[in-house]
Amino acid sequence: MQIDFEHREIQLKLVYYGPALSGKTTNLIYIHRACAPSSRGRLMTLETKDDRTLFFDVLPMQFESDSGLKIALKVFTVPGQVIHNATRRVVLQGADAVAFIADSQVSALRANQESFLNLKENLKENGLNLKSMPLVIQFNKRDLPGVRTDAEIDMMTSKGREPVFKAIATKGPGVVTTFLGLVRLTWERLDAWHNLSGKFGLNGEQLLESLTRQFPKTSMMP
Q: Most exposed of 121, 148, 153, 172 (fewest Cβ within 10 Å)?
């Protein structure tokens, strides 16, 4: 988190993590298209023959809250391929929160597990702790055959501490809901640590209401 007291601006870095082709890039593309043009920046995508994203996508989104505070959200994805692990680690530097995008297909179980373990290891390399990092999990590709059932995901959700969302990133359901959930959790943690509400006069609900208005027509899904 970067705070500019003079210009009353807070910059937050959000990272979408997960195995190759789980839908990280698709999430960002949908968020970018759904967001009000006045709030979104340029979406940069680098495609290669061996992975959808070689380095990262960045979605700088900036808007002003009702209290006059400017919030700049910089959203990144990491490459899913193992050979780009050094890039993943670099992208995670300075992250304020992480959205882990899991593939709902049963056949992707091992890839999800390995990527989550890799996330934990790379956070540690950057001096960050997964237990204290604001983290949400999205089970994507809910429209495909051979996916984990809703009951299975709900059971996993009840056993964990992280908010869990279901999505179909190619069509939109659950994408913005995941994003808003990530921002909410991020603000709650940072506010608890740094008293942002007291310093800037902006609480979490005001932030979410202001941010939600930037997505007037989106597909919501729990």
A: 121
